[in-house]
Specification:
InterPro entries: DNA_helicase_N/primase_C, DNA_primase_core_N_sf, DNA_primase_DnaB-bd, DNA_primase_DnaG, DNA_primase_Znf_CHC2, DnaG_bac, DNAG_N, DnaG_primase. Keywords: DNA replication, DNA-binding, DNA-directed RNA polymerase, Magnesium, Metal-binding, Nucleotidyltransferase, Primosome, Transcription, Transferase, Zinc, Zinc-finger. The protein has a five-stranded antiparallel beta sheet. Strands 14-16-15-17-18 form a five-stranded mixed beta sheet, with helices on both faces. A four-stranded antiparallel beta sheet has the order 8-11-12-13, covered by helices on one side. Helix 3 crosses helix 8, helix 23 packs across helix 27 and helix 26 packs antiparallel against helix 27. It has five domains: 164 residues, DNA primase DNAg catalytic core, N-terminal domain (Alpha-Beta Complex); 103 residues, Alpha-Beta Complex (DNA Primase, Chain A), CATH 3.90.580; 93 residues, Dna Topoisomerase Vi A Subunit, Chain: A, domain 2; 73 residues; 139 residues, DNAb Helicase, Chain A (Orthogonal Bundle), CATH 1.10.860. It is globular. The protein has 652 residues and is an alpha+beta fold. The N terminus is likely disordered. The protein has 29 helices and 18 strands. It starts with 6 loop residues before the first helix and ends with a helix.
Length: 652
């Protein structure tokens, strides 16, 4: 079905907007309405700007407090002068990530990650320098006045960027169809009946897809998107005969799904009327930019509120999050589907101290809540479970009893893990039957014998005794037997792990003397441009390891351009995260200015000595090869050179 001019449509808009829509419908060459939104998107999300003045960069850096910035991603606690939290760059259970407020630097004692506010954004969001500056400038209220172009993409391939651009275009198009067209009126009326205000619809970018096979496909083609890429992005499907493509979503209310940075990366489409022929919800397939195991719905909106409260509400569906937000709950997220991954929990653990799980009240909801609670507990999160009565879901409860009742009676009165577990096992039992009683006790004992405090055990034993009529003494005796059995199992498991550790030794190691010398010399070179010029003139190729040699070459180019030391700007200019890490580690080394020259001399001698020894080893090997080939002349020449090199060692 093709879109045709509709006089009813004209009556719905202002004259200016009507001209825009008429152009969209009739033009085969240019789409002003969509084009304007693409330009806005490119201005916000392009990845490389024209050269930014150094004073602007310094202004962005000085107006960004690193504690506030990192606090949006990591739950930080102040200890002494510094702030500590779980490192966002590697998995850990004990905080080793330090943020120095006075120095405006961060450092992880576990993985070695180091940097400032700008490099933190570059690392955490895999962004180039210009995009990190743009994000921080917007955050600080600084007007850059620069436009982006499409010449590169932040840490992602052009294909991924095109997929994000296409999803943004589609989201804007769907939103327009819902809010501004006759075709979207039915869907808009449905949402309004469900309690959605226009503000909520616009905040969450909710839209409507026309019941037409190719309307979005044609729009994407006119915008010159590669349709094979659009199929991989999940927006369209190839026809069976291979002659073209058609839209994946048709005749559905469209809910955009955003990544952690707020980019639209997928959709979930809901039909207006439930039928047996069609699924109620149709989600985008997993794509290069959309993975269910990594995406938490509403994370980009909720992150700040979670950090402020230290508490996050976890739902099993995105509609629950939207309903809760309408009830005033601003710190909730949802999984896409029924799977909660380690990645999800790692994200939540960085920004929250407490997790409240709220799933539907039906059997599937109880099972999901148990899985979520168990995984959260294993990950070290303080998980509590909010239970809904009957088989209600959060949206139904809020619609029936109101948002205040939901926040006070449900979210405000969560169960501890063991309290929930006891309710979970009891709900399917008839405790007037002996077999059910024995099964109930056995299941609860399995949980009590594990990671439960003595006080909680005592409380649960009292409750169990009251519910079953079995004496507390008998229950405690059985519990101790179960604890002993588990202790034996844990001991055997630890022995197995120790044996494996003997076979597979830890490959981590402390820096060698060579690496310490390279790091200390680099530290001096980062703070002294005159020293760099001297070293460059006297010692070509002074560094041993390839990473340091690469940094040395890039530092030469930096000094040619900037003329003065600035390790912040130098680190920010490096695209490779590992190189930035080495630079920041070197820059943060403690040095004694009184002994600077002695340190430099010692480092150079140490590195030169290593180079000579390495060259001697290479020449000994070459000499042996020459002898094997009966090339005694070459072997003699090498022997003489080896003697000279060994003599030069004594001069160092």
């Amino acid at each position: 079905m093709r879109i045709v001019y509709n006089s009813k449509l004209a009556l719905k808009f202002t004259f200016k907007f009507f001209l825009e829509i008429l152009e969209f419908i009739l033009s085969n060459k240019q789409d002003l309405w969509i084009q304007s939104r693409i330009q806005v998107y490119e201005k916000r999300n392009g990845d490389r700007m024209t050269k930014i003045p150094e004073e602007t960069i310094e202004q962005v850096r000085s107006k960004t407090d690193i504690v506030d910035l990192i606090g949006e991603y990591v739950q930080l606690t102040k200890r002494g002068r510094n702030w500590f939290g779980l490192c966002p760059f590697h998995g850990e259970s004990t905080p080793s990530f330090s943020v120095a407020e006075d120095k405006q630097l961060f450092h992880c004692f576990g993985c070695g990650a180091s940097g400032n506010a700008i490099t933190f954004v570059m690392d955490i969001e895999n962004s180039p320098f210009t995009e990190a500056i743009a994000k921080l400038a917007d955050r600080a209220g600084i007007e850059l006045g620069y436009t982006f172009n499409e010449s590169s993409k932040s840490g992602q391939s052009n294909e991924f960027q095109h997929m994000i651009e296409a999803h943004t275009l589609a989201a804007n198009f769907y939103s327009h169809l819902l809010l501004n067209t006759v075709e979207g009126e039915k869907a808009l009326h449905y949402l309004e009946q469900r309690g959605f205000s226009r503000d909520h619809i616009e905040k969450y970018g909710i839209g409507w897809s026309l019941d037409d096979r190719e309307v979005l496909t044609q729009l994407l083609q006119r915008k010159k998107f590669d349709m094979k890429e659009m199929e991989r992005a999940g927006l369209c499907i190839m026809k069976n005969d291979g002659t073209g493509y058609f839209d994946r979503f048709r005749g559905r209310i469209m809910f955009p799904l955003h990544d952690d940075n707020g980019n639209v990366v997928a959709f979930s489409g809901r039909i207006l009327t439930n039928t047996k022929e069609e699924a109620k919800y149709l989600n985008s397939p997993e794509t290069p930019i959309f993975e269910k195991s990594r995406l938490l719905y509403n994370f980009h909106h909720a992150r700040l509120n979670v950090r402020k409260t230290g508490k996050v509400i976890l739902f099993e569906g995105f509609m629950d999050t939207i309903s809760a937000e309408r009830a005033g709950v601003m710190n909730s997220v949802a999984v896409m589907g029924t799977s909660l991954s380690d990645t999800h929990l790692t994200k939540l653990k960085r920004i929250a101290n407490q997790l409240i799980i709220c799933c539907d009240g039906d059997n599937a909801g109880w099972e999901a809540a148990k899985r979520f609670a168990l995984l959260s507990s294993e990950k070290g999160l303080d998980a509590q479970i909010a239970l809904l009565p009957g088989k209600m879901d959060p949206d139904e409860y809020i619609s029936t009893y109101g948002g205040e009742a939901f926040t006070d009676k449900i979210l405000g009165n969560p169960h501890s893990y063991m309290s929930f577990i006891m309710a979970y096992y009891k709900r399917s039992k008839n405790l007037s039957h002996e077999n059910d009683v024995l099964q109930y006790i056995h299941e609860v004992m399995e949980e009590l014998a594990r990671k439960v405090s003595p006080i909680e055990r005592d409380l649960m034993i009292r409750q169990l005794s009251s519910e079953t009529g079995v004496s507390k003494e008998a229950l405690n005796e059985q519990l101790m037997k179960k604890v002993g059995t588990l202790a034996k199992q844990d001991k055997a498991k630890r022995q197995d792990e120790q044996e494996k550790q003997i076979v597979f030794k830890d490959t981590s190691r402390s820096p060698t003397g060579i690496e310490r010398a390279e790091r200390l010399l680099l530290s001096h070179l980062l703070s002294d441009g005159i020293l760099f010029d001297r070293i460059r003139d006297e010692n070509q190729g002074i560094f041993i390891h390839e990473e340091y040699t690469t940094i040395y070459v890039k530092l030469a180019g930096f000094y040619e351009q900037h003329k003065r030391p600035d390790f912040h700007r130098f680190a920010e200019s490096l695209e490779d995260r590992e190189l930035r890490k080495i630079v920041m580690e070197a820059a943060m080394l403690e040095r004694d200015p009184e002994f600077a020259e002695l340190e430099i001399t010692d480092c150079i001698h140490h590195l030169e000595k290593h180079q000579i020894l390495r060259r001697i080893d290479e020449m000994i090997h070459e000499s042996k090869e020459a002898e094997k080939m009966n090339d005694y002349t070459r072997a003699l020449e090498l022997a003489r050179e080896i003697i000279q090199l060994r003599k030069s060692l004594s001069a160092l």
